């Protein structure tokens, strides 16, 4: 009988975009606490360093996910530091302009698409290129969608359109990744307590379908982070393809 102690398992590496605040910050800290090596990406270096908290397992890499060269540099640095990328959490996003479709400027529309869709595409493409080289182990991509990928808020045409597009990307990436051991899933979060949620309604409450405003229930961003960690921790033989997590009692099912 072999009584030798097994070699310790190599820590897995996760790249998290939008890691400087909100769900991204909470998720990065949850992954670090779980033993992951974490690459923290975002536009604001100071906030990223606050998230990292000086952890030896955190790599801070300021990057704009809408800029192809930034994304390529991000993943090259992640591979250079840790040797592989096991998980990508596409979290960076913006709510974009508030208004009906006839009130949106093309500039605001394009900015929202650039962050929420093109940024997700660029990061996923870079991750897949590296994950294919890791095949058959591959890797896992988790996209941050929104309950707006199911049912919109009033006056959120740009945001809603981008989140429906993210759902399409999630399904396509998961399908195309099958031969290489790459899986892709999506978490749709409703009313995690973040700066983005606080900005909806400007403190007056969120606009409802009947034209009234209401302060909606919220839940801690750390609970959303725990759900993302759950998705990331599934064995390679399993994939959480879709997970909807909302504040209890929020007006999601009753929209429209």
TrEMBL record:
InterPro entries, per database record: KR_dom, NAD(P)-bd_dom_sf, SDR_fam
Transmembrane segments: none
Name of the featured protein: SDR family NAD(P)-dependent oxidoreductase
Species in which this protein is naturally found: Arthrobacter yangruifuii
Any Pfam family: adh_short
Record GO terms (molecular function): oxidoreductase activity
Ketoreductase domain location: 12-190
SMART domains: PKS_KR
Alphabetical keyword list: Oxidoreductase
Family: Belongs to the short-chain dehydrogenases/reductases (SDR) family.
Keyword set includes Oxidoreductase: yes
Gene3D superfamilies per the UniProt record, alphabetical: NAD(P)-binding Rossmann-like Domain (3.40.50.720)
Domain of life: Bacteria
């Amino acid at each position: 009988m072999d009584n030798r102690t097994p070699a310790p398992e190599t820590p897995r590496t996760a790249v998290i975009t939008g890691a400087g605040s909100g769900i991204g910050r909470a998720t990065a800290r949850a992954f670090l606490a779980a033993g992951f090596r974490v690459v923290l990406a975002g536009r604001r270096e100071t906030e990223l360093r606050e998230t990292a908290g000086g952890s030896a397992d955190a790599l801070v890499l300021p990057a704009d996910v809408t800029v192809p060269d930034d994304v390529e540099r991000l993943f090259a640095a992640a591979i250079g530091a840790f040797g592989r990328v096991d998980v990508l959490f596409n979290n960076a996003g913006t709510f974009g302009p508030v208004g009906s479709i006839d009130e949106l400027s093309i500039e605001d529309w394009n900015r929202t698409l650039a962050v929420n869709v093109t940024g997700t595409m660029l990061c996923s493409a870079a991750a897949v290129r590296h994950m294919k080289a890791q095949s058959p182990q591959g890797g896992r991509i988790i996209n941050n969608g929104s309950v707006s990928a199911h049912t919109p808020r009033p006056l959120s045409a740009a945001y809603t359109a981008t989140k429906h597009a993210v759902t399409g990307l999630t399904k396509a990436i998961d399908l195309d990744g099958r031969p290489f051991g790459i899986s892709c899933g999506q978490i749709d979060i409703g009313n995690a307590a973040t700066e983005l949620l606080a900005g909806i309604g400007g403190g007056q409450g969120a606009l409802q379908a009947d034209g009234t405003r209401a302060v909606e229930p919220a839940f801690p961003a750390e609970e959303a982070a725990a759900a993302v960690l759950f998705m990331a921790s599934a064995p390679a033989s399993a994939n959480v393809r879709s997970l909807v997590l909302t504040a209890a009692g929020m007006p999601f099912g009753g929209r429209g």
